[in-house]
Amino acid sequence: MKRNIYIDNMHLDEALRLWERKLSEAGCLNPMVPELISVDDSLNRITAEPVFARLSSPFYNAAAMDGIAVRFQDTIGASETTPVKLELNSQFQWVNTGNVLPPEFNAVIMVEAVQPTDESTVEIIAPVTPWKHVRTIGEDIVTTELILPDGHRIRPIDLGAMLATGLSQLTVRKIPNALVIPTGGELVQPGNSLRPGNIIEFNSRVLAGYLTEWGIHAERSPIVTDDPGTLKKAICAAVAKYDIIIVNAGASAGSKDHTAGVIGDLGEVVLHGVNIRPGKPVVLGIINNKPVIGLPGYTISAVITLNLFVKKLADYLQGIQSPLASSLEATLARPLHSKLGVQEYIRVKLGKSALF
Amino acid sequence: MKRNIYIDNMHLDEALRLWERKLSEAGCLNPMVPELISVDDSLNRITAEPVFARLSSPFYNAAAMDGIAVRFQDTIGASETTPVKLELNSQFQWVNTGNVLPPEFNAVIMVEAVQPTDESTVEIIAPVTPWKHVRTIGEDIVTTELILPDGHRIRPIDLGAMLATGLSQLTVRKIPNALVIPTGGELVQPGNSLRPGNIIEFNSRVLAGYLTEWGIHAERSPIVTDDPGTLKKAICAAVAKYDIIIVNAGASAGSKDHTAGVIGDLGEVVLHGVNIRPGKPVVLGIINNKPVIGLPGYTISAVITLNLFVKKLADYLQGIQSPLASSLEATLARPLHSKLGVQEYIRVKLGKSALF
After folding, report:
1. For B191-242, how does the pLDDT look when each residue is reduced to its tens digit (9 = 90+)?
2. Contact call for A253 and B66, based on CB within 8 A
3. What residues of chain A lie within 8 A of the CB of B203, using their CB?
4. Between A5, A254, A299, which is nearest B96 by CB?
5. What is the CATH number of domain A62-135?
6. Contact A59 B3 (CB under 8 A)
7. Distance between alpha carbon A106 and the CA centroid of its chain, in Å?
8. Where are the beta strands (DSSP E) in A111-262?
9. Could you report the predicted ipTM of this complex, rounded to two decimals?
10. pTM of the shown model
11. Topology of domain A34-57+144-173, CATH
């Protein structure tokens, strides 16, 4: 019975540096190729180049209020005691918010401040300054102005800025895709009957869920049994099609743990085992310049190692830098001792206590 | 030429209270009906009832390490000077992480601490405590335990908790749907040629984008011209099919602003005009117990009023309470004066300055 007892126990920082260097050398950290898509489909996508305005917004002088368009010169001197009468067409025109300001006028008076006297004359009791209540050309954005930088995740308001300045398409990064391969003869799909020793296959769903949250298009493969040949075939097929390949589990040193061996046969095992707990038996590999990561079977170990070794890779592929998880200083309710030389990840419940 | 000059100028707090009360009376704040879906499709959905474990996890005692399953009694007294020999099958069995613990054993010794002496015997140099390195039945979750509360947005890890405890379906709230109706004869769809006075129709994309971010399934209708009859038809059709109807714009008091009139003809105008700036000419209406909201045409006004009068409604329909937007105290770089009695929303650029 073959047992691979010894796996690495590399310090986490060293492991992260090594993994990043190897990924970089293999070209695995290059952002995805750009693709041209419609602005209408671009919510939450990442720009692949800076976006510049094609038109000014507005691209004509527009009334910013409902009321009358006037020449400010005609309103000088208007007051409650000396109201000014204006003639329709020659001295004013009715405008609604957003209407083009007729070229002979240069200001707008709000409808509330206008007193119609008959069908074709109005009275005003205050003067108006030039361009008052007018949205002048380029007030919001001027042609050639930078609207969005490279590597920017598109928000709802950005859709407006692009469309308003005459853009209907833009270049974004392709969405990286990942395959999660669940392995293990003991796995059964949810909803089937169970015997002792069976494990309901849920890890792939959890891992695919996190990848989805990180902007990756994640798919799940059928369950692969503990047979190195079958696993080899599954990984080969995945490497040809996906940007990230996750194998879960078979990452440890048990008699049925073939992930490291198969990765080694097909490409390079960058490292097998880091000094963290849980999560030690992770396998980081590269096959045909594609990252292939073997995660431990215990769910929390798999999630921790996915965060440590795949999240940043997902960022690189998208050309973004996710904000770091927020941190908080707290007092432990009871002492905790970690094994010497092991970096331990402990889940805690946060609470406020009157005692501290 | 018909001009509806006077609109309300209700205080914002009063407007919000009135809107919430009217929506509540019309049943518009009741959460969406539940629907049964597969756990696999439930990421980011909202639970419609508490979720309880159907099975314990694990549902059998399992090895938590690769190594040997033993009886702790057989290991008592083992030390470096007095190693204990164990016989295969009668005193130990090889196990991999996750294997069922054979019922005759009650502890696991890690493979690293086991010295095979021949094919069927091993030596150990330390005793083991009962249930050491064993994941006992229900260690993670016990049958009938609460996994997720009502009104909970499902995270990747929740998929694992549900599937691991034997659930493959759950009851979630239906996703509310909304229709955004862009109105205005001056609107043209993006990508078409433009004349002065045209406005590229982008508001509906921005508004639908925010609704999407808030968990609503948002659709956009074709552009509706400034004709009350056409608008009436469009709103009638929308009220029959959607949970939230947004009309943008025609909300003001200009000669082409028909939103309030049409809502009044078809149902009730709850209010028309609040004392905020920008965003004053908003129309809040209810038709056949469906909220119909007329938003101002100026994009930032539309976004502000959408936030004020629709976001909470979106929460109610989903049975959730979104966290409040984060706030920050800052010093204004120049003085700002708002008109008396007007609550003003000012966009600012936040920066750190050595001066303050």
Report:
1. 999 998 888 999 999 999 999 999 999 999 999 998 999 999 999 999 999 9
2. yes
3. 160
4. A254
5. 2.170.190.11
6. no
7. 44
8. 115-118, 121-124, 134-135, 146-148, 169-173, 177-182, 187-188, 199-200, 217-220, 244-248
9. 0.87
10. 0.88
11. Molybdopterin biosynthesis moea protein, domain 2 (3.90.105)
